[in-house]
Amino acid sequence: MGTKRTPIGVAPRCLGIDCEGSTCVVEQAEGQGVVTYIQRMNRRTIEPCLFGQGGTCCRICSFGPCMMIEEIPESIGICGATPATVAARNFCRMVAGGASAHMDHGLETAFAFLAAARGESEYKIKDKKKLRALAEVFEIKTEGRSTEDIAIEVGEKALAEFGKQEGGIYCIRRAPEKRQELWKKTGVLPRGIQREVVEIMHRTHMGTDQDHENLIFQATRCALADGWGGSMISTELQDIMFGTPVPTRALVNLGVLAEDEVNVVVHGHEPILSEAMAMVAQDPELIEAAKNAGARGINLVGVCCTGNEVLMRHGIPVAGSFIQQEVVLATGAVEAMVVDIQCIMQSLPAVAACFHTEVITTSDRAKIPGAKHIEVDHHNAVQTARQIIQRAIDRYPKRREINIPKNKMDVVAGFSHETINHMLGGAFRASYRPLNDNIINGRIRGVGAVVGCDSTRVRSGYVHTTVVKELIKNNVLVLVTGCAATACGRAGLLRPEAADLAGPGLREVCETVGMPPVLHMGSCVDNSRILIAATEIVREGGLGDDISEVPAAGCAPEWMSEKAISIGHYFVASGVYVVFGRTFPTTNSKVLTDYLFRGIAEEYGGKWAVEEDPVKMAQLMIQHIEESREALGIQAKKERVLFDMEMRREL
Ligand code: MSK
Fold it and tell me: Which residue has the higher pLDDT, 651 or 319?
């Protein structure tokens, strides 16, 4: 201690904002004393622990921490735990952490939904059709009943899913039948949503489950309870309450901050307060108050996945992704950043303190020292939103020098799985048939999901966009969510014009329908939409009887959070090939990694892989897609045909 160490590693300085034509916001902020993750990374003097990074550091009892090297036989824990057991326990706990985040989000949404259904809040049931569809999943009778009546029962049943101890969860029945049979046979059908997390924490306690495959079995059950349970309930109830997204034009990147308006940023994941903020930001009384404070109006923008939620439903612009949250404040142009849960950096109040900005926490589950706490509850969201916007207005006259980069990019967002139905099938022939037909005839080779966080270790968004460009160039239709979607938005890949970068088959389909080759499906909790889209493809027919047979693959090129591990694992358990970028948390145990990268495919059809190079990552996905086509017998290349009007209409 006390010895001066040399800093290690250098963080990429560019955050993908493309400040061209403006002063670099990172450099200017540095001059103002702002410390962002870039400086923190560059000042870090201790190497990241390689044992921890590869999964073989055990700190679940006081004998250790025990750090192990699998190649050395005597390198095991004091209790005798092997590197494979320790890595499996750590992996399980990451799944439990990530799944809990989505489950708690879903639980909170269910409470808010029930309050809306009972008429106890300002929110109403917006999507009645979707309400009835979900009621059917929950085996609730709808005939002759009022919307409110059905909604109350849906809310109660959704809530009960979380505490259930046996009997299974309803939404899992939405999966293809063959998949459900397989889960039944392997015993991984979740019994309730939260029970599976408790069991992981017990099994990974010192001296309990010592078999790495048996531990992964429980991780699988827990991850399924996330994807087909907690996450799916969040998405479905939010859609019913706030509206199911439809394609919407909007803008993305720091340039969406306004020079002469009160800028209010919503950041986090739960749209319960941000929905109210979207309503209130248009209130004439508040706009008048903003004008009296010297501003032209109120500019509501988003960051991270709360940003994606309001973008998908209202076309509200997104200022930045996870990695850009500090830089959004460093523009000096934000009056209030309102945060809820997940992916919120603790450094925000310190950055805000360099300016006139106030950081406001709103969830009792996520407070930050130095931030103002104004709690939102399901019954008072509008009132709280009003109070917060008024505080932001009061701060506007204190604004000093600002530096907003000019860049902003057009995007089309709002592709729910229902929208894909209509987009390709038209209003009268809504179905996945045209998509399936285009995959079968080879114009579209398959579907690639590019999801997840952005990373401090690469030029922000570079890896995402490189993977995506390689996929569309090879005629793979891409679905994006979370911060990957924001990165694609900044790079112009969410516009119909991006079809110019696609291969001829995909370009033809996109140009005919007028859609982008990269479809923004929402926040990270909305990866459940991709599960349903995959199920719809199976149900439509011609591409196998199970998700594992569909020519599709997924990746999280810049992943960082435990949620990404849970999401990746529920896709693997649902039969999908999933590639993660740069690092994987079990690589110090070859035994466990071999099982996750190969052995597990024999049970579920899906498996994990890791690849740092974005082009190679895309090629791995394309190779898997081509192998799936081969297995389906649809590999034969079709002759290129010139389309007449009749054929275009049919397409
Ligand atoms: S916000 S979990 S950094 S996607 Fe959903 Fe982005 Fe990853 Fe957070």
Answer: 319
Residue 414's nearest CA partner among 241, 231, 249, 227 is 249
Question: Could you tell me the two tokens for 483?
Answer: 């911060």
650, pLDDT greater than 70: no
**Cα of 194 from ligand 1 centre, angstroms:** 22
* Contact predicate 28/60, CB 8 Å: no
Which pLDDT score is estimated for 3? 39
Please tell me the distance between residue 81's alpha carbon and the centre of ligand 1 in angstroms.
33
Asked if 387 contacts 283 with a C-beta cutoff of 8 angstroms, the reply is no
Q: Ligand 1 pocket: which of 345, 558, 561 to mutate (most atoms <8 Å of CB)? A: 561
Ligand 1 atom nearest to CA at 561:
2
Going by CA atoms, what residue is nearest to atom 8 of ligand 1? 343
At a CB cut-off of 8 Å and minimum separation 6, what does 288 contact? none
Structure tokens at 63: 């004998």
Ligand 1: residues with CB < 6 A are 269, 304-305, 322, 343, 452-453, 482-483, 523-524, 561, 563
CA angle, corner 534, sides to 532 and 538, nearest 5?
110
Domains of the chain: 12-67 (no CATH), 83-242 (1.20.1270.30), 254-398 (3.40.50.2030), 411-632 (3.40.50.2030)
Going through 468-606 in order, the beta strands assigned E by DSSP cover 476-480, 518-520, 552-556, 577-580
Helix H, strand E, coil C: the string for 182-203 is HHHHHCCCCCCCCHHHHHHHHH
Nearest Cα neighbor of 196 from 206, 183, 207 is: 183
* pLDDT at residue 1 in the model: 33
**Do residues 101 and 217 make contact, with C-beta atoms less than 8 angstroms apart?**
no
Residue 135 pLDDT greater than 90, yes or no: yes
Neighbours of 650 (CB within 10 A): 9
The atom number, within ligand 1, closest to the CA of 486 reads: 6
For residue 482, the CA-to-ligand 1 centroid distance in Å is 6
